[in-house]
């Protein structure tokens, strides 16, 4: 699996800045606009410029706020996004046709960024949520997040149409609408089983559900006549692929683990004997 850019989150700094810089040997393309030394110098590149076909893409990185209680702060600072993002975004818009932001800020901050900073097409969010988040459209920006701890692979398919707004792909929209229709029909079915038809006609909630069903059915019929190529705007669809939580057994790895456990147990036994001996001498 390849990668073009890797944003830096607070968790990546848990071992200190020196440890993170040692990872340069792995040639990971770390980026961060707002991670700087105590002297204010950038620690890593603020952005990466790449392309997809003829589309020029600028990828920016924002590191979320660092909590001093769980991260060793050795020789660096994390600046507020308001200080670093606006000028970087202005430059990125001049250099690229599309701007992507890798951000480890929480959703409410990314939402504020999307509303206040024009020109960001995508925000790929690396928050602390344990669940996948379907893409959310905020102003003209699509905010996406995949669950943490490597449990899922998030896939976002896009057909970029310049600066036009985002539109959920026809097939994906139809699938979502069908799910809504199924839920509405189930609710109507339950209501019909529990009350006479004449009483339901006087029930405002029942009438609202019927109207909702009619609206969904009309939208589905319209989408059935429309093709993806006829959609006006940048089209997207997404999916989450569950990754396997287990790997085939590796005998060499198992042997190393067993040996390590034996060494740990032996060390613990020796320390226990040493403490017992000290107690006897003190007694």
Draw up the topology in text.
Blueprint: E1 6-7, H1 17-22, E2 30-31, E3 35-37, E4 47-52, E5 55-62, E6 76-78, H2 81-95, E7 98-103, H3 107-116, E8 122-125, E9 133-138, E10 141-145, E11 152-159, E12 166-168, H4 170-194, H5 197-200, H6 204-225, E13 234-242, H7 251-282
Parallel strand pairs: 1-2, 5-7, 7-8, 8-10, 12-13
Antiparallel strand pairs: 3-6, 4-5, 9-10, 11-13
Throw out a few tags for this protein.
7 helices; Purple Acid Phosphatase, chain A, domain 2; 283 residues
Which strands sit side by side, in order, in the main sheet?
4-5-7-8-10-9
Q: What is the domain tally?
A: 3
Give the overall pLDDT as a whole number: 83
Number of strands: 13
CATH class of the largest domain: Alpha Beta
Helix-strand string: EHEEEEEHEHEEEEEHHHEH
Q: What is the H level of CATH, i.e. the homologous superfamily of the largest domain?
A: Metallo-dependent phosphatases
Number of helices: 7
The biggest beta sheet is recorded as:
6 strands, mixed
CATH topology of the largest domain: Purple Acid Phosphatase, chain A, domain 2
Rg of Cα set: 27 Å
Level of helix content? 40-55%
Oligomeric organization of the protein chains: single chain
Query: How would you classify the helix and strand content by structural class?
Result: alpha/beta
- Distance, first to last CA: 62 Å
The stretches of 5 or more residues where confidence is low (pLDDT under 50) are none
Work out the strand percent.
15-25%
- CATH architecture classification of the largest domain: 4-Layer Sandwich
What is the overall silhouette? extended
């Amino acid at each position: 699996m390849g990668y073009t850019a890797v944003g830096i989150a607070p968790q990546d700094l848990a071992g200190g800045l020196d440890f993170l810089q040692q990872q340069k040997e792995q040639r990971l393309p770390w980026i961060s606009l707002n991670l700087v030394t105590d002297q204010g110098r950038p620690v890593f590149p603020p952005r990466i410029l790449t392309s997809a076909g003829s589309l020029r893409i600028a990828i920016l990185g924002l590191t979320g706020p660092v909590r001093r209680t769980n991260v060793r702060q050795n020789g660096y600072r994390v600046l507020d996004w308001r200080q670093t993002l606006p000028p970087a975004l202005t430059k990125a818009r001049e250099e690229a046709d599309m701007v992507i932001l890798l951000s480890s800020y929480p959703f409410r901050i990314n939402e504020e960024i999307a509303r206040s900073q024009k020109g960001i097409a995508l925000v790929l969010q690396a928050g602390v949520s344990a669940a996948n988040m379907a893409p959310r459209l905020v102003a003209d920006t699509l905010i996406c997040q995949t669950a943490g701890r490597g449990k899922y692979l998030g896939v976002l398919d896009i057909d970029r149409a310049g600066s036009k707004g985002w539109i959920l792909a026809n097939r994906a929209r139809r699938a979502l609408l069908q799910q809504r229709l199924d839920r509405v029909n189930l609710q109507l079915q339950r209501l019909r089983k529990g009350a006479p038809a004449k009483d339901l006609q006087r029930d405002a909630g029942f009438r609202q559900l019927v109207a909702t069903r009619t609206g969904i059915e009309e939208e589905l019929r319209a989408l059935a006549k429309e093709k993806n190529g006829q959609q006006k705007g940048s089209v997207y669809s997404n999916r989450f692929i569950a990754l396997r939580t287990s790997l085939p057994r590796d005998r060499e790895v198992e042997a190393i683990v067993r040996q390590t456990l034996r060494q740990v147990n032996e060390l613990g036994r020796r320390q226990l004997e040493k403490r017992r001996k000290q107690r006897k001498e003190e007694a």
